[in-house]
Structure prediction request, 899 residues.
Amino acid sequence: MTNKIVKRGMALLFSSVYAGAAQSAYELNLQPPETPIAHQIYDLHTLILLVCVFIFCVVFGVMFYAIFKHRKSVGHKAAQFHENTTIEIIWTIIPFFILVGMAYPATKTVLAMKNTSNPDMTIKITGYQWKWKYDYLQDGIGFYSMLATTQDQIYGRAPKDEHYLLEVDKPLVVPTGKKIRLLITADDVIHSWWVPAFGVKQDAIVGFIRDTWFEVEKPGIYRGQCAELCGKDHGFMPIVVEAKEPKDYEIWLAEQKQAQAATKVDVNKTFTLDELKAQGEKVFNTTCAACHQVNGKGIPGTFPALDGSKIANGPKADHLNIVMNGKPGTAMVAFSTQLSDIELASVITYERNAWGNKTGDAIQPSEVKALRK
Amino acid sequence: MDAAHATHAHGEHAHHPSGIMRWVTTTNHKDIGTLYLTFAGVMFFIGGIMAMTIRAELFQPGLQFLRPDFFNQLTTLHGLIMVFGAIMPAFVGFANWQVPMMVGAPDMAFARMNNWSFWLLPFAALLLIVSFFVPGGAAAAGWTLYAPLSVQLGPGMDLTIFAVHILGASSIMGAINIITTILNMRAPGMTLMKMPLFVWTWLITAYLLIAVMPVLAGAVTMLLTDRHFGTHFFNAAGGGDPVLFQHVFWFFGHPEVYIMILPGFGIISQIIPTFARKPLFGYSSMVYATASIAILSFIVWAHHMFTVGMPAAGQLFFMYATMLIAVPTGVKVFNWVSTMWRGSMTFETPMLFAIGFIFLFTMGGFTGLVLAITPVDIQLQDTYYVVAHFHYVLVAGALFSIFGGIYYWLPKWTGKMYDETLGKWHFWLSMIFFNVAFFVQHFLGLAGMPRRIPDYAPQFADFNMISSIGAFGFGLSQLLFVYIVIKCIRSGEKVSAKPWEGAQGLEWTLPSPPPYHSFETPPLVK
Prediction:
């Protein structure tokens, strides 16, 4: 009801300003809410906006009346009054009561947003530079989710597709009609997990876990973005959530469990150099290339080159150490927590044998495992 | 004494160096005021060029001109330079020129320290600009410098930290000087409650500066030791907390917001009565409202942090406290409108900027109220809605008040009148382009566009293009302002001691331009 009123009001207010440019892209209001909390936020915003517009019209109605009538050019003589205690008390007290009227519904929503008790399921979300990881704590599956838009689209060498910058390789999948608790943290710097249609925005803070929740009503695909500046690719770590009917969700979950079991590898197996390089290239391009670049040249001054670098061509132990344990005070974090033994072994092998680097070293997953404490 | 006076009157300041050394060694409040305002103007254009580069990149989706890390450096330095290089020094420039003349004092209390607090600024600015050319480039963590991102960055961050230290030292010295001048050097008979409102707002602002600049210095010092000396204030792995940085930063940052607007309130409170030809309505409630805003500013800082995951009690406390600020701010707006009510108004350029200020600052106040509501803020935090909000209060607020003040006192300072027609052009161009640039950003934020991103999804394209056009127009319009000021100084028409019919106050009893040393004998205020 209020939604309709404000939509019409906004349309009236602004259509005159931007007449002739009325396309669907000119969105004037919050995204359509899809959870109970998002509905409450939407209505709160509507209420407060209407109150503000009303006060605005009264105050500036008075001011513009004075500007047109009480001007020297129409011969208006200045009065000399300069205070009136009664009116000053009135315009201090009335706003106070208006504020109390706004605070009451806002307080109810704050308490509802904070109520993460009795969830149907719990998902742990970890922010990395610049991707998200989702761990389904009860079901034991987990995966990374990162931008699917290509560099060619970003740099204008290919046409941009419909969900440019708001598409990922693997979305978070959740069931509809279930209360889902999120445990949110980060691995390197502060990120913020935000899906506007859910009314959820929670900072992901390194070393601390914060919780929030949502319960989505309709199946569909919902899109959001990282909302806290987190370095170079802050604008390129979108969030996509796919809500499925519970029965479809169960099918998806079973598939995931199966796929995860199939990719388990024996860490004691010995791989050939070519096998390691082939897998390492994939890991490099998804995990390392954002900083060190696909061509291994890095970004001078900011991210060091690996092509021809001392570490990638020096002793294996130093190379393993920096990748697994990171370099404090820089964007190079400890990747031993993010990558598996085989991924670490293959990516380091790749780095030592790609571009101009030709060490011929093949690092086996068992070597990585031995270094883990 | 008499002999010295005569020398001043005739030979001006024959004992002073001339040329560049006059400006380097000056201890005169008028010279230093001019230096501050000129510095602020230069920084305003440097920060403005950064803003227009940012808007050029955001003109269309995709990356056309900038790498993402350079984009982040530009947004960071645009913020730091506009806050610490343009707005704050401009207001200190006004304080230098106006406070002694408005309280009937011959100069600032500590004339040599005044010179030192100005001459620190160019060095701090140089550090900020040089930081673009060190390996890794300038700081790219946003003007808020949040840890741990700011711990990751290269040496550009260290230069920024030193610059902030120097700027803070300069501000503290300036504030001590202003407080001492106001409390000790008022003309006989000028009680505190007879001071012009501009002086009152600066007195309160100066106390805010002394209270919070050391807090900022502490925050960036902790950052420096975390970066280089093995401390873990903001590193959870070492027992620290990244959110601690935000608490300390915003304990400085929120009062800082009022540091940048209270002197503007003061300027508007001088301009409106002059052109309404009517005394300011509710003088004492204006003073109390300013003081209330300043006190409340210390207990609202965490409203910048509603998404960090505070307990419900914390969110509610900071929401209620923030909403309370609407009451004294409302009182101020009502008082200005009542001053205009039944006046005999004329609309010279200073008055236009003052009315533009009230109109647009109030809109920024309303969006501030929307953002105070915790659940709504959680939806809008770190979006373009916030960018629109703070540009309404800082550009249409602080900057418009600075423009208004310059047009209002320029005839006094130079003894010459600016070109009224061009001044009106400057106002209307600024007013229109400002709204084209920033009004649409409210919609972008509501629709879900995060701030500080170099590229965006196609559904945000139309409003971004409009906003960029507005920003270019606004930036170019400011060249007109430079032309108007230069033209006024070079060839403006001579004015009398009181060029504005309705002006009140001691500064208008002095000739225009005022003598190099004014009020050597204190005037008597009845």
Strands of chain A lie at 121-128, 131-136, 141-145, 172-175, 180-186, 191-195, 200-204, 210-214, 220-226, 238-244. Chain A touches chain B through 102 residues (CB under 8 Å). Residues 7 and 29 of chain A are 8 Å apart (CA to CA). Confidence is low (pLDDT under 50) at residues 11-24 of chain A.
